[in-house]
């Protein structure tokens, strides 16, 4: 990730985008457009989904109509698909780190605006599904309240004006290219959090590019730092996955001293896509052997440039033999860092060992240690995955 450029003035105000930045809108957009296409005898192409990121509803509609050759006008299409979206608003989940960031800014009295291309009423409806969100924004600016939407700077300039501040005091956080363009055109500082993996290179005009909201460092901008990091780790709402250990990429990780027990990702693709790529840690249970400390990477392994998002847990224990086919259950309780590329294999290995030491130590803290005894870890019979560790 690109390091932030030095800033000449300290930030006093923050402006957040909503769709794709705070909310996982893309999952819902894909679901709705897909079901519309199926009804119209077309096949959804997930590779084209990124074209809709950061567009106004009107622009997105025109792209879908053209890409799939649908016989509707933009207005007709919007009138059919808009009610389908409205039903889904409360199904848009906060992205990793969104609640934490909003609460942090509010607790520290940092005036924060919400600025989105969506019409104001849609924004209000979407955020009403999330406790404490509406009260956290000193102003909300919708696409229908200004002349031109992003990439024009109007929305951000309006937000700054309503907060009685000047653009150079504002920090914009945005997931889309039109949004980043708009923020820079407004004369603001911009952090890009691209929604589309592997497209970070397109965001070179941003002042900083980060992988997820978990990686926001407010102190880099003169804002109060987060104080929830503990011994190099960030506690997260735990999540739980399980499955049989399968053959991985056969990269000879074992030879490098870092065997990773791969799980069939298709079993829990929803949970995995909900979580940002990065290095996490927690507990691993093997039904016939015991419960062990674990550190893992989730994502595309930039050093190897995987085409698929993989889950690679390294159990912090020396086993005398392999355990392919055995049931492995993971409780993922904390975050360490985003995935990175490395100049050499040695430096990658050194960093993974450092992650192992951090996890090893942190898992003794009561806040993480307690999950070793969760029912999910102890009950060898439960199948599938849950997000709360409860018994299915
Ligand atoms: P693959 O490409 O098949 O994942 P690896 O070289 O990563 O091969 O080795 C992973 C396998 O090694 C696991 O599936 C498991 O059977 C075994 N293994 C032995 N020790 C460990 C460990 N400490 N953590 C994870 N897997 C281990
Ligand atoms: N791969 C990367 O390309 N970048 C990383 O930052 C990275 N971090 C990892 C952290 C841990 C704890 C583990 C277990 C793996 C990580 N990997 C990373 C994945 C690694 O490339 C893969 O497991 C190799 O097969 C290890 O040799
Ligand atoms: Mg492996």
UniProtKB/TrEMBL annotation:
<dbReference type="InterPro" id="IPR023214">
    <property type="entry name" value="HAD_sf"/>
</dbReference>
<dbReference type="GO" id="GO:0009398">
    <property type="term" value="P:FMN biosynthetic process"/>
</dbReference>
<keyword id="KW-0547">Nucleotide-binding</keyword>
<protein>
    <recommendedName>
        <fullName>riboflavin kinase</fullName>
        <ecNumber>2.7.1.26</ecNumber>
    </recommendedName>
</protein>
<keyword id="KW-0288">FMN</keyword>
<dbReference type="GO" id="GO:0009231">
    <property type="term" value="P:riboflavin biosynthetic process"/>
</dbReference>
<dbReference type="InterPro" id="IPR023198">
    <property type="entry name" value="PGP-like_dom2"/>
</dbReference>
<dbReference type="Pfam" id="PF01687">
    <property type="entry name" value="Flavokinase"/>
</dbReference>
<dbReference type="InterPro" id="IPR036412">
    <property type="entry name" value="HAD-like_sf"/>
</dbReference>
<dbReference type="GO" id="GO:0008531">
    <property type="term" value="F:riboflavin kinase activity"/>
</dbReference>
<keyword id="KW-0808">Transferase</keyword>
<dbReference type="InterPro" id="IPR023465">
    <property type="entry name" value="Riboflavin_kinase_dom_sf"/>
</dbReference>
<dbReference type="InterPro" id="IPR015865">
    <property type="entry name" value="Riboflavin_kinase_bac/euk"/>
</dbReference>
<comment type="pathway">
    <text>Cofactor biosynthesis; FMN biosynthesis; FMN from riboflavin (ATP route): step 1/1.</text>
</comment>
<dbReference type="Pfam" id="PF00702">
    <property type="entry name" value="Hydrolase"/>
</dbReference>
<dbReference type="GO" id="GO:0005524">
    <property type="term" value="F:ATP binding"/>
</dbReference>
<dbReference type="InterPro" id="IPR006439">
    <property type="entry name" value="HAD-SF_hydro_IA"/>
</dbReference>
<keyword id="KW-0285">Flavoprotein</keyword>
<dbReference type="InterPro" id="IPR023468">
    <property type="entry name" value="Riboflavin_kinase"/>
</dbReference>
<keyword id="KW-0067">ATP-binding</keyword>
<feature type="domain" description="Riboflavin kinase">
    <location>
        <begin position="234"/>
        <end position="364"/>
    </location>
</feature>
């Amino acid at each position: 990730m690109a390091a932030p450029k030095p800033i000449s003035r300290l930030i006093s105000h923050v402006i957040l985008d909503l769709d794709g930045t705070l909310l996982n809108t893309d999952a819902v957009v894909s679901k709705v457009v897909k079901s519309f296409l199926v009804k119209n005898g077309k096949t959804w192409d997930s590779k084209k989904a990124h074209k809709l990121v950061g567009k106004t509803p009107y622009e997105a509609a025109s792209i879908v109509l053209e890409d799939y050759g649908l016989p509707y006008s933009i207005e007709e299409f919007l009138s059919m698909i808009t009610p389908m979206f409205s039903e889904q608003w409360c199904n848009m989940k906060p992205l990793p780190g969104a609640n934490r960031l909003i609460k942090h800014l509010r607790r520290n009295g940092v005036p924060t605006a919400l600025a989105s291309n969506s019409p104001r009423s849609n924004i209000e409806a979407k955020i009403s599904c999330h406790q404490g969100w509406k009260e956290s924004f000193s102003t909300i600016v919708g696409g229908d309240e200004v002349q031109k939407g992003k990439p024009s700077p109007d929305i951000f300039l309006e937000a700054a004006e309503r907060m009685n501040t000047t653009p150079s005091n504002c920090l914009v956080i945005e997931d889309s290219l039109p949004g980043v363009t708009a923020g820079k055109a407004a004369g603001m500082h911009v952090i890009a959090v691209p929604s589309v993996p592997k497209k970070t290179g397109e965001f070179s005009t941003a002042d900083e590019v980060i992988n997820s909201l978990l990686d926001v460092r407010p102190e880099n901008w003169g804002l109060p730092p987060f104080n929830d990091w503990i011994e190099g780790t960030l506690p997260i709402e735990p999540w739980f996955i399980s499955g049989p250990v399968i053959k991985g990429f056969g990269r000879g990780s074992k030879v490098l001293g870092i065997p990773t027990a791969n799980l069939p990702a298709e079993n829990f693709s929803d949970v995995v896509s909900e979580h940002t790529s990065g290095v996490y840690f927690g507990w691993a249970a093997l039904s016939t052997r015991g419960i062990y400390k674990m550190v893992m990477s989730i994502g595309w392994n930039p050093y190897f440039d995987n085409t698929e998002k993989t889950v690679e847990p390294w159990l912090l224990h020396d086993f005398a033999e392999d355990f392919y086919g055995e049931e492995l259950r993971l409780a993922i309780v904390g975050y360490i860092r985003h995935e990175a590329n490395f100049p050499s294999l040695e430096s990658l290995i050194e960093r993974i060992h450092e992650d192992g030491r951090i996890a090893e130590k942190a898992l003794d803290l009561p806040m993480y240690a307690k999950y070793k005894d969760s029912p999910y870890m102890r009950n060898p019979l439960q199948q599938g995955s849950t997000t709360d560790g409860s018994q299915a």
